[in-house]
């Protein structure tokens, strides 16, 4: 999905700050409100943002954004997270990847590794991993969700339960103030939990916009992870719960790939 640089930045601002006015965006970019309205019209027509009186915000939290739109939001932050995960995972490891745009970007960042064994229900992850001839890639069978290009449900649960891997890599729809991990469907939660229960180290990858983001299906807590990778420090209560539980927290590093 092609966006201008300004539209990309606008989407990131709204993802970070929530409701944002037309006037504040015009001032931030030193352009007219008419120019900003054209940008916002394009972003809203694609479903990335939602019109509100005087400005825009993200679409309703009752359901997740379509996959192509999630690939756009917080892309630079996700690339930083992916580089940190690539530093952490050694050559020759076995990995279970779940659904989501951040795991897909992590799979791409691992392309310089050797002899990884990848197990996934995410066709986007599988395609990224297959670009490295030394990787062994195994996918779950079943019906694909068209836009998300993934398999969820009992077949995916049974698939992940059949292996014991070194690292489970998965994202999350949102994190509540008490550390609850939230997603948008029961099947998504079940797949994530099955991976967590069948890996030696669980690696949660999420950008900062997931803290406080509403989603309605709960499954597990952030302090149950082995390592949490993020682009910014979490809220203080979350950071304390991670510290108390001995969970390693890793900040994404460096300048992302453009």
TrEMBL record:
<dbReference type="Pfam" id="PF08220">
    <property type="entry name" value="HTH_DeoR"/>
</dbReference>
<keyword id="KW-0238">DNA-binding</keyword>
<dbReference type="InterPro" id="IPR014036">
    <property type="entry name" value="DeoR-like_C"/>
</dbReference>
<dbReference type="InterPro" id="IPR050313">
    <property type="entry name" value="Carb_Metab_HTH_regulators"/>
</dbReference>
<dbReference type="InterPro" id="IPR018356">
    <property type="entry name" value="Tscrpt_reg_HTH_DeoR_CS"/>
</dbReference>
<dbReference type="InterPro" id="IPR001034">
    <property type="entry name" value="DeoR_HTH"/>
</dbReference>
<dbReference type="Pfam" id="PF00455">
    <property type="entry name" value="DeoRC"/>
</dbReference>
<dbReference type="InterPro" id="IPR036390">
    <property type="entry name" value="WH_DNA-bd_sf"/>
</dbReference>
<keyword id="KW-0804">Transcription</keyword>
<dbReference type="GO" id="GO:0003677">
    <property type="term" value="F:DNA binding"/>
</dbReference>
<dbReference type="InterPro" id="IPR037171">
    <property type="entry name" value="NagB/RpiA_transferase-like"/>
</dbReference>
<keyword id="KW-0678">Repressor</keyword>
<keyword id="KW-0805">Transcription regulation</keyword>
<feature type="domain" description="HTH deoR-type">
    <location>
        <begin position="3"/>
        <end position="58"/>
    </location>
</feature>
<dbReference type="GO" id="GO:0003700">
    <property type="term" value="F:DNA-binding transcription factor activity"/>
</dbReference>
<protein>
    <submittedName>
        <fullName>DeoR family glycerol-3-phosphate regulon repressor</fullName>
    </submittedName>
</protein>
């Amino acid at each position: 999905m092609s966006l201008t640089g300004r539209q990309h930045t606008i989407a990131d601002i709204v993802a970070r700050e929530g409701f944002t006015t037309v006037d504040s965006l015009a001032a931030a970019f030193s352009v007219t409100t008419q120019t900003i309205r054209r940008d916002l019209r394009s972003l809203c027509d694609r479903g990335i943002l939602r019109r509100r009186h005087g400005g825009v915000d993200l679409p309703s939290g009752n359901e997740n954004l379509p996959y192509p739109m999630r690939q756009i939001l917080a892309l630079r932050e996700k690339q930083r997270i992916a580089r940190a995960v690539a530093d952490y995972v050694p050559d020759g490891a076995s990995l279970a990847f779940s659904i989501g745009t951040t795991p897909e970007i992590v799979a791409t960042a691992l392309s310089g590794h050797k002899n990884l064994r990848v197990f996934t229900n995410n066709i986007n992850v599988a395609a990224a991993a297959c670009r490295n001839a030394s990787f062994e890639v195994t996918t779950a069978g079943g019906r694909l969700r068209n836009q998300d290009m993934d398999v969820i449900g009992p077949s995916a649960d049974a698939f992940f339960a059949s292996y014991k891997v070194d690292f489970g890599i998965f994202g999350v729809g949102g994190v509540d103030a008490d550390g609850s991990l939230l997603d948008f469907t029961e099947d998504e939660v079940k797949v994530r939990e099955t991976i967590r229960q069948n890996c030696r180290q669980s690696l949660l990858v999420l950008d900062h916009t997931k803290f406080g983001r509403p989603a309605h299906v709960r499954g597990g807590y952030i302090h149950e992870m082995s390592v949490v990778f993020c682009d910014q420090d979490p809220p203080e209560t979350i950071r304390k719960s991670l510290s108390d539980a001995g969970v390693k927290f890793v900040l994404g590093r460096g300048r992302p790939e453009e």
